Amino acid sequence: MRFPYMKLRGRDLPIIPLKIKGEDGWTIYNAFVDSGAGYSIFQTDVAEDLNLNLEYGKREYVTVGDGSLIIVYVHRLEIQIGDEVFDAAIGFSKQLGIGFNIIGRKSIFERFKICFDEKEKFVEFIKNKELSI
């Protein structure tokens, strides 16, 4: 599955659409694919859209780019990337200050080989054969 980079603040970035299943069905969100992030972390307004109570998630402390710790509430949710539907650990934080959602390694990078093509400006998700059976 190949996703063209999206423009954000005048820059082409590996931001892709994905769907998250909530109480009222599927909703599409955009998220930055970040190979340096351990967890996928979304803004708290996404949790509100999905009618999730943050505190019902597993409380984790995650180190962000400047070295500080933020509180993240991790939930197991059904998501869809391209044509693949699966359960993933998705965190939500009131302290995520970068202004966009992040797709990290946990639950996502285990399922796919992810290739960034900076020259052609796309990111490709290739299913791991072991998980496709």
CATH domain class: Mainly Beta
Helix content: under 10%
Largest sheet: 7 strands, mixed
Architecture in CATH? Beta Barrel
Number of domains: 1
Strand fraction: over 45%
- Low-confidence segments, given as residue ranges, are none
CATH topology-level fold name: Cathepsin D, subunit A, domain 1
Overall form: globular
Coarse structural class: mainly beta
**Number of extended strands:** 12
Question: How would you explain this protein's 3D organization?
Answer:
The two termini are 18 Å apart. This protein has 133 residues and is mainly β. The model has no long low-confidence stretch (mean pLDDT 89). 5% of the residues lie in helices and 56% in strands. The protein has a single domain (2-126), classed as Cathepsin D, subunit A, domain 1 (Beta Barrel), CATH 2.40.70.
